[in-house]
Amino acid sequence: MGNRIIMHIDVNSAYLSWEAVWRLQHGGEIDLREIPSVIGGHEESRHGIVLAKSIPAKKIGIQTGEVLWQARSKCPDLTVIHPNYELYMQCSEALMELLRRYSPLLERYSVDECFLDVTGSLGKRPPVDLALEISRRVREELGFTVNIGISYNKLLAKMASELEKPNKVHTIFPREIPEKLWPLPVKELFMVGRRTGPKLHRLNIFTIGQLAKADPRFLTEHFKSFGKMLWRYANGIDDSPVNPWGTVPKGIGNSLTTPYDVDNKREAFLFLLSLTETAASRLRRAGLMARVVSVSIRRKDLSFSSHQRRLFSPTNITEVLFKNIKTLFLEFWGKEPLRHFGVAFSELCNDQFYQVSVFDEERLSRKKALDLSIDGIRGRYGNTSLVRGSFINSGIPPLSGGIMEDYPAMRSQL
Amino acid sequence: MKVLMKNIEMISYSNCEGIIRPIRFRWLEDGQEPKIIKIDRILDRKEEKLAGNRMLVFTVQSIIDNVERIFEMKYEINTCKWYLYKI
Fold it and tell me: Which of A64, A124, A260, A331 has the fewest CB atoms within 10 Å, measured from its CB?
């Protein structure tokens, strides 16, 4: 692809920084970034985990994802603030708007990260100078700091931005790979998660450099096509373009942790229905249908199970999806108390054209029209303007899962 | 100046170009009678966009209790609220 110049911009402790700046703008005397503080969920509804932490909190040993009571035990004076997703969307939009002044080729990766292709915007200016200018403008105009990684492709730019934080600009150009990328632990490589890391360790691969020098056929043998991708990433090879229009999702799903343990079929179905309503509506809005339906649960003892099925025909009709979800759920639920439900739809395809089968359910077109009418009414008058009768007096929200409409969740692909 | 960030009632003027000018406001200090303060001069105006939240910041001068004072006011665009920021 020639020598592109790609930047990866990542807000430092986004949720916490954004809350800190908002408070200072509104007359707050304390900067949350300078005291032990975290953004945490609502403990009363059992969503009490650390979503973001300040540097002083990190130094005490508080980790993102840990439960709040554990964080408080490490720091009794910890300041805990509830998340404000509307504020985060506002901050994210302001950041993207500022960055678009430098290049129209901006791809939002999550609410606080994006890629920027500045190949055509540099002129004679060195990329590091441009990155420093961007960093300064974000800090002065919007009030928070970012890390910026620069390279010839998205992968290396992302890896670069994750080197020392906060408020830094880093490069990992190909000639710098042996010095900056290869010494890092293999779990730091993009796409190496909790399961892949230990598997690589068992193969005596502990650093990204060892992974890069491994035989790609050996990796393919152990990890199939994923192994080849890992080898390419370890060698800094990535051709994916910066796509301002985003990518088609591989799956759409929703999940929630219930405020109490659910031990009866009626309430379990209601929670699953509320998740299905939201996820199916997102499918239709994206113009997609799903062929694979999946249900997941987490029990009171925190053990996790999931079950999935491939449908004969792809669909995005709520009733059809929910019918399959109910069947799947009953197949593997042993009536034990549950605290978490999830539904997910994958093997997505375009809903414009699909092969109709003689096994299609009757009156599919009427059900589809009903769903579109419901979506239209909710879009115009609000999500709760029309709810299913079974939710009345149940205490269970009729639509749940996810954070808010169009909230940009992090993707797992570049 | 001390930061107050107190929500206040304001009468303002907007011209055809959309430029807003604060004119007078009602200030209720704790334990005191409400005061109507007329803004005599606008010394500086700027826009800030911290956390993506647009606010117009005015540095103004008024006579309060026979004393000429300089203070800062903020107008939050998305909520249309005025604040006595620093005095």
Answer: A124
**Domain ranges across chain B:** 3-86
Distance CA A36, CA A32 (A): 8
Interface touch A27/B3, C-beta < 8 Å:
yes
Q: What is the mean pLDDT of chain A?
A: 89
A223 interfacial to chain B (CB closer than 8 Å): no
Q: Both tokens of residue B12?
A: 């303002």
Catalytic residue among A19, A107, A113, A277: A113
pLDDT in tens, A103-154: 999 999 999 999 999 998 888 899 999 999 999 999 999 999 999 999 999 9
| Domains, in order of start, for chain A | 1-173 (3.30.70.270), 182-234 (1.10.150.20), 251-391 (3.30.1490.100)
Amino acid at A69: W
Whether residue A142 lies within 8 A of chain B, CB to CB, comes out as: yes
Q: Cβ contacts (< 8 Å) between A29 and chain B: which residues?
A: 3
Residue A1 pLDDT: 47
Q: Strands, DSSP E only, in A118-220?
A: 146-151, 169-171
pLDDT of residue A405: 53
In total, chain A counts a number of residues equal to 414
Exposure pattern of A61-97 as b/e (b: 16+ CB <10 Å)?
Answer: ebebebebeebbeebeebeebebeeebbbbbbebbbe
Distances (CA, A) of B55 to A73, A95, A398, B77: 39, 16, 37, 6
H/E element holding A132? helix A127-137
**So what's the ipTM on this one?**
0.88
The residue with tokens 């985060």 is: A88
Shortest Cα distance from A147 to chain B (angstroms)? 17
Min Cα–Cα distance to chain B from A274, Å: 32
| Residue whose tokens read 């200090």 | B29
Name the band, by pLDDT with cuts 50, 70 and 90, for residue B32.
confident
Q: Which residues of A touch B4 (CB under 8 A)?
A: 27
Residues of chain A neighbouring B49 (CB-CB closer than 8 A):
94, 141-142
- Residue A29 annotated in active site: no
Q: What is the mean pLDDT of residues A360-382?
A: 81
